[in-house]
Structures are given as C-alpha cells and as structure tokens.
UniProtKB/TrEMBL annotation:
Compartment(s) where it occurs, according to its Swiss-Prot or TrEMBL record: Cell membrane
PROSITE patterns hit by this protein: MFS (PS50850)
Protein name in UniProt: MHS family MFS transporter
Keyword Transport: yes
Limits of the Major facilitator superfamily (MFS) profile domain: 17-430
Organism of this sequence: Paramicrobacterium chengjingii
Higher taxonomy: Bacteria, Bacillati, Actinomycetota, Actinomycetes, Micrococcales
Length: 441
C-alpha cells in the first residue's frame, strides 16, 4: 500500500484542529467580504441614499472602515483570553459573536423606512463585529500551528486561508445568484439572505470548535503554571516586552491586509462606477478567486516551508507591487474575462501568497505564553491601519486625482514597507520549538 501523502497524511486529530480553526477564519472572511460586497454595491442605495453617488460610496466605505477600529481591542482582549484560559475558549466566544453581528445586519431596515437610525445601527453592529473578528486569527493560527509537525507549519497555517477561499465562494456566490434576479427584490430583501445565512455557519462552527483540544505545548505550559514551576505571566506585558516584534508584525502584515480590499472590494466599486461593469461580473470574479484561493493557499504555504518564510513573503510583497497596475489595467478592459484575469493577477498570485504565509510567520515570533496576544496585535493592527481604510483611501485618492495612479502608488509604498519589515525579521527555521523560531535580539 502506498503511503499517504499531502493532506491525507495529516492525522485525524490534526485535521479536526485545522477544520475548527479554518471554520472561524471562514466566518471572519465571509463577514468581511460580504460586507465589502454590500458596501460596494448595495449599501450606498439602502443605507446612504442621495443624489451624489460618490458621496454615497464614500459613506459606505467609511462604514466598512469603522469595523476595523475595534479589531485591535478585540485582538488584545481575546488574545489575553486565549493565552490565559485557552485558545479554545477564545475561539468559541469570537465565532459566536461574529455570527450574531452579521445575522443582525441582515435585519436592519433601510434608511427609507427608519431614516438615520438605519446607518447608525449598521455602524454599531459593524463595530461589534470588528471587536469579535479582532480576536479570531490569533488563537486560530496559534492552535493550528502548534499542532503542526516541524517542517509543515507553513502548510498548516495556510490551510486557515482555505477557509477564506470558501468564504469568498459563499459570499460572492450567494450575492451573484441573488443579484442576477429582479433588481428591486435584490435591493430590498435579496441582499439580506447571505447575511442571515451567517446564523447557519455559526451553528456549524460551534459544533466543530466544541471538539477542539489544546495543543501539547499549551498543555505543558499550563501544567508548569499549576505545579508552580513557572509563574503565570501577563500575556500582553510579555508581548510588549519585545516591542520590535510587535512593530515588525504590524508592518509585515500591512501589504497582506490591503491586497484583497484594494483588488476585490475597491476594485469592484471602481469597475462599476468608472467602467459601468455589471456588478454580477465582479461577484462571479470574486467567486472564481475564492475557488483558486482554496487551492493555492496550501500550495503557497508548502512553498514557504521549502524556501523559508521570510524569503517567500518578501517575494509575495514584491509581486503585489509589480502586479497591482496590470490588475487595474485589466479591470479597464471592460470584458468579463479581462476583469477576472485582473483579479487573479492582482490577488490570487501575490495576495493569497501573503495571506497563506503571514499567520505562520507571526506565530513564530512569540513564545507560548504570549503567542495568541502577539499574533492578534500584529495581525489586527495591520488590518486596521491597512485593510480597514484601504477602500476608503482608494476611493478618496481616485476622487481627488481623477485617475488610478495614486491608488497604484499607495499600494506599492505599502508593499515596499512590508518588504523592509520582513527583511529585518529574525527567522530561525532550524529551531525545533515552534515558539522560538524567531531569535529575539
């Protein structure tokens, strides 16, 4: 009998852990991609109606950005919970909170029905959603990578991003199917169905995560605390004790954080408003990207195991800087094929490569007692400073300049900042302990 290879070689217990982590990542990206699609196409008309479409779009993207403001706070709070009381407990709280917020968004009446209260409720739920999302990636990445065998941490960490691909397919697929029907129905009730579907995903996530077990590394650490061999440390203070790691983590994450939101979220708005592209084309393109993301994320993670995390992430950042202009040039082509090709060129190649590598890179920068907090702080601050405001910044830059070049420059500068920060990361892939792959100097 031939030995099992690839994902089939992963033990059942480890596959269950990966599934439990990935379902939350899927919820995180489902919520945010869905909101991004709504912000680009639906919300300007439903929650911010007016005579000026540019103003409506800016208001809609501002609401999108608001959801990122509480992500760092969520990262700190739930990072503390994960490091102090267990990754599983943190993961259960965050996935339930995300699901409730997204579901309630689908129940908000339009501005035409309740006036100013409609966008206010949207903003409140968006901020609450951001709080729970802020605590998701840290414990998910930590528990999955802690389970990973030496030499396969990149692959295991990247499997979380397959959940993001599934989220792309679900969110864009549902919006595409519903958007293809009657426009009046879609703008009134159709767009709400994908948001309400979050309740179903939440139930599935809770069932999967209820079966999670803490890693041996975390169990060992907890046991040393209980026996008094080691004094319990404050996770946040331990992470702050190494400020270089925190700062580098934020800067490293910036290019990854803006890639999807520029290419897929702002890109859709740009195509619809400037080139009169049918939103359906963008929805289908996002779905295609999702399918490719499911396949390519573990491929990129495996490559990072082979050539080294730092080298691979630097190449991905450079790829984003080089390919962002061709992507938007393809968006201007007007045909569906060119637009879909632009999404692949601008995001699947460099963006998924960065996404598939970042969480493993961050987990390797902190010891077990502060790992969840460290990952959350780096990941969520970079997403807030970068991805959260990327569509709004791009829309404002285009409105100011009247062409796409300032957007290209903005993306390129962020990518180069990621290259420099990653170059300074001290990565030691030869170290066996998953918590000490970065040498703190």
């Amino acid at each position: 009998m031939r030995p099992k290879t690839g994902l089939r070689a992963i033990p059942t217990k480890d596959r269950r852990t990966v599934a439990g982590g990935a379902i939350g990542t899927m919820m995180e990206y489902y919520d945010y991609y869905l909101f991004g699609l709504g912000a680009a196409v639906v919300f300007p008309h439903v929650f911010f109606p007016g005579d000026d479409p540019v103003t409506g779009t800016l208001q809609s993207f501002a609401t999108f950005a608001v959801g990122f403001l509480l992500r760092p706070l969520g990262g700190i709070v739930f990072g503390y919970v994960g490091d102090r009381f267990g990754r599983k407990r943190s993961l259960m709280i965050t996935v339930i909170g995300m699901g409730i917020c997204t579901t309630l968004m689908g129940l908000i009446p339009s501005a035409e029905s309740i006036g100013l209260l409609a966008p206010i409720l949207l903003v409140i739920l968006r901020m609450a959603q951001g709080l729970f999302v802020g605590g998701e990636m840290g414990p998910a990445a930590t528990i999955v990578v802690e389970y990973a065998p030496t030499g396969r941490r990149g692959l295991f960490g990247a499997l979380l991003i397959t959940g993001a691909g599934v989220a792309n397919v679900f969110s864009a697929g549902l919006m595409s199917i519903l958007g293809a029907g009657d426009e009046t129905f879609f703008m009134s009730w159709g767009w709400r169905i994908p948001f309400l579907f979050a309740a179903v995903l939440t139930i599935v996530a809770v069932v999967l995560r209820s079966k999670l077990e803490e890693s041996d590394e975390f169990k060992t650490y907890t046991k040393t605390i209980e026996t008094g061999a080691v004094k319990r440390k404050n996770p946040l203070m331990e992470a702050i004790r190494h400020p270089k790691n925190l700062i580098l983590g934020i800067l490293i994450g910036l290019p990854q954080s803006i890639a999807g939101y520029i290419v897929l979220t702002y890109g859709l708005s740009y195509m619809v408003s400037e080139h009169s592209v049918d939103p359906e084309v963008g929805f289908i393109g996002t779905m295609i990207v999702g399918f490719l993301q499911i396949v390519m994320a573990p491929v990129w993670g495996h490559v990072s195991d082979k050539i080294g995390r730092r080298k691979f992430y630097i190449l991905a950042c450079i790829g984003f800087a080089v390919l962002i202009y061709p992507a938007f040039a393809l968006f201007s082509g007007g045909t569906a094929i060119l637009i879909w090709l632009g999404m692949i060129v601008g995001f699947v190649i460099p963006g998924v490569a960065m996404q598939g590598t970042l969480q493993t890179l961050l987990t390797e920068m902190f010891d077990v007692e502060a790992r969840t907090t460290g990952v959350n702080v780096g990941y969520q601050f970079s997403n807030t400073l970068g991805g959260g405001f990327a569509p709004l910044i791009c829309a404002a830059l285009f409105a100011w300049a009247g062409h796409i070049w300032p957007v290209i420059v903005y993306a390129t500068v962020i990518a180069l900042a990621g290259v420099i920060a990653t170059a300074y990361a001290k990565i030691r892939p030869d170290v066996e302990n998953a918590g000490r792959l970065h040498e703190l100097k």
